[in-house]
Amino acid sequence: MSIRMRFVALALPLALSVPVPACGHPSATGERPARAEATAPPPAPALSAVVSAVPGAKLRHTLRPGCPVPARDLRLIRMNHWDFDGRVQRGELIVRASVVKDVTQVFGKMFAARFPIRRMRVMAHYRGDDEAAMADDNTSAFNCRRVTGDPSELSRHSYGDAVDINTVENPYVDANGVVHPAAGRKYLRRDRPVKGMIRRGDAVTTSMAAVGWLWGGRWPHPDYQHFSATGQ
After folding, report:
1. d(CA 46, CA 79)
2. DSSP at 73
3. Of 31, 38, 99, 224, which is least packed with CB atoms within 10 Å of its CB?
């Protein structure tokens, strides 16, 4: 046997000692090759609104004897919203049962447009104090109270069919010219893009208009944060 032939004879067993599996078939050892696990993409964020009766604790300091809407006609909506840092947060609103469909439709469109909301807490968190809630840039709905800046009139929030959104970026100017909250004064100029600011033709005003809700930003004494089913 030549030197070349001896080399081939010795090399062949070494080659056979390394299993080489065929593509898509078990290897020579009977083991199946490892497969890369398919990773499903995470589900897209959604509004995920849940509607329920309102627990008594959520109405503390905000529902009083003589209020125009009883507790049985109110509903608690727990739903997601985008915050100012682009994260999804869980918030709460209390509204009249008859407007739940309108409110979830509007906030669903706002969520799809990624319109940011600073925070969304029920007014019991602020002991019913509208000034404190506005200063905290809170988005809220039901609160049985008088109109801020005009105690002679009952607020539309007492009926559960009005919503205030991002109260600092969207301040309220009362009949005496006082800006609420005070930190909102720098946002009275409305011709510039500001995160959380409501502007004509945006996702907030158009979705509200689609369900027939009117914007306080059109009033002579503007209330840029305020929308209601009656326009009041």
Report:
1. 9
2. G
3. 38
